[in-house]
Here is the input.
Amino acid sequence: MPRVRVAAAQIDLVVGDLAGNSSLILAAYERAEEAGCDLVAFPEMSVTGYPPEDLLLRPAFVAEAAAAVQRIAQRTGRAAAVIGFPEMGRDLHNAAAVCANGVVVGTYRKQLLPNYAVFDEERYFTPGTDVGPLFVIGGVRVGVSICEDAWSPVGPIAQQAAGGAELAVNINGSPFYAGRMTERETMLATRAADASIPIVYCNLVGGQDELVFDGGSLVFDETGRLVARARQLADDLLVVDLDVRPAFRKRLLDPRGRPSATPLAEIAVSPERAPEGCPLPSRIEPLLDEDDEIYEALVLATRDYMHKQGFADAVIGLSGGVDSALVATIAADALGAEHVTGVLMPSRFSSAGSVTDSHALVANLGIRSMTIPIEPAHTAFEAMLADAFSGTEPGATEENVQSRVRGVTLMALSNKFGAIVLTTGNKSEMAVGYATIYGDMAGGYAVIKDVVKTRVFRLCEARNRRAGFDLIPRAIIDKPPSAELRPDQLDADSLPPYEKLDPILVGYIEHDLSIAELIAAGHDPDTVRRVVGLVDRSEYKRRQAAPGVRVTARAFGRDRRMPITDRWPR
Here is the structure.
């Protein structure tokens, strides 16, 4: 049995851009052909981008996607291409077309449709009912599957192997969250070893609304050994040579892996082979550590969200605090310093240190800046509201006026100059409502919406280590967090210390722990009850927050869909 040369083309696609996506697919296909590949796999729903959501409910969109697949197929040659698309028959399927020699040779329909977390594929698709056919590519019998199909130990990959497949190709739109790569590798290694079959896993890369896809395409041999790994969070074409003879012998020695009594149909594809030559050396890209992968995911998601929406420039309110400093740094890395403007909006309560720290950050990043004092507007609002507020004590209302003045200022700059406002609130603040609706929550994209405060500090430290100096000034990182909306204000005046708050939030939001379970885990009972109450009462605010990228296994929005009106006791 021969060696087969395969490629995983992880490319950054745009939902709905059928022509642009087709061009990216063909460009990667040509590179794979030039590299002598027998097969090149593209991500799930590669023609449409993923997830296309309710575009799938429009018959014209589905029809145009099918036509795009035919046009791509006409451009194929000897190498087979596995391309994801929505297929309309009696029902709509999440499908993969296998194309070669100018035609669509066959189609596979996804069987296992995820309907949890950020996925709702059962809303759109009907599951496929069979695992065939197998495709003979370069003399090797290849089974094709899609994303969730790989996660079941008795799913399509195991069935294809039992039916005589010698190579499994799995195409994916698997979104990122911290630690996801390790989970995928463990699963795929197990699947390959159990089925005694090499697996090529091709994943999507790039940002799409509140999701970011991290690439990291993988190849495992029949023993579950990692053979190749593509780059994380970047476009890549991963080319690898696979010898299927060891898999054949392993299956002969293991009765569990012998072909079933009813072998699947085979379709000949690409019988002519390129010269064998020397096998390519394996390429295993190193894994990023958790803080670095989160940071790079935030950069990629911010860049893609802005560019795919047609924005070139961003404005950010700089407070002198750690959150706005991190967002400004991410934006500069994502867009280039020349496309980022930091706006200082000091009030009577702004410390001199906050202003000087912001200037130091601007200088380190090389971004543009402007200073717009809000005191005239703040004073005017106080005068305007004086009669209405007569006889009341100043409090959060007066503090929030300042935040809303800043929000209006940033949105005015956005409207005037066509730059998107990047909000600076973190997950801890969004969780407990420590943010001003129509104030600091106002903007077009919430970069660190899914990053708790303690992680914000870690990401700042990680970025500084990479820079080799305090790119984010040490004074910003070391100062106690403060909104600076009243004299000598600290976050700790209103909230538990973040070191205590964040573990409660992670337990309640990301792991669905009850009050009793959080208390049993060792958290202070009064603090738990207070924090849970704040989270639940702030749901209405989060519904009105800007979209932001998901980097944990449970983010607000697509992941966590709680009712605003809710009296269930926690």
